[in-house]
Amino acid sequence: MSWGELTDTYVAAIQHDLADLPPDVTRVGVVRQPTGWFYAAVDENQPELGPPTDLLEAFRDAEADMKLQGFCEEGAHNAAWEQVGFDAAYRAYLEESAEAQAVLSELEDRLSAGESLALVCYENTDKKRCHRTILREQLEETS
User: Fold this and answer.
1) Is 44 helix (H, G, I), strand (E, B) or coil?
2) What is the pLDDT of residues 54-88, one digit of tens each?
3) pLDDT by residue (tens digit) across 7-41?
């Protein structure tokens, strides 16, 4: 068996036909609390792979503080990411959460069976940090 292709993108790229995805890819949302319109852009959503609510709240609070200090949108986002230790906290969540581990294992099985997957959330990673990059790295380590 050959591994399926693993890619990632953001929802606006799909909506505006900017995402360069394989034709047979399954678009897997990795959003904890998706908006209604998010579902139209993905084939499925795995909320267990979204950042935990407490981490998201701490991040959003820090981001709002950075904006009040005069940071631009991207600058506030990325500075807040560092301030709350998002990368380490999200990696710890993925390792410690039984629900997240179960979904990761399922995605690994699907990839190993040859299915191509695209991880999808909201952030354009050209400008902002995003948990799906960490998630992709985790999945690539097992391939």
Assistant:
1) strand
2) 999 999 999 999 999 999 999 999 999 999 999 99
3) 999 999 999 999 989 889 999 999 998 998 999 99
The closest of 122, 129, 125, 113 to 6, measured between CA atoms, is 113
For the cut 80, the answer to whether the pLDDT of residue 143 exceeds it is no
Q: What does the H/E/C string look like for 76-130?
A: HHHHHHHHCCHHHHHHHHHHHCHHHHHHHHHHHHHHHCCCCEEEEECCCCCCCCC
Compute the distance between CA of residue 9 and CA of residue 27 in angstroms, rounded to an integer. 9
**The two three-digit tokens of residue 16, written as one number:** 């505006």
Q: Is the pTM of this model over 0.90?
A: yes
For the stretch 21-54, what's the b/e string if a residue is b when 16 or more beta carbons lie within 10 angstroms of its beta carbon? beeebbbbbbbbebeeebeebbeebbebbbbbee
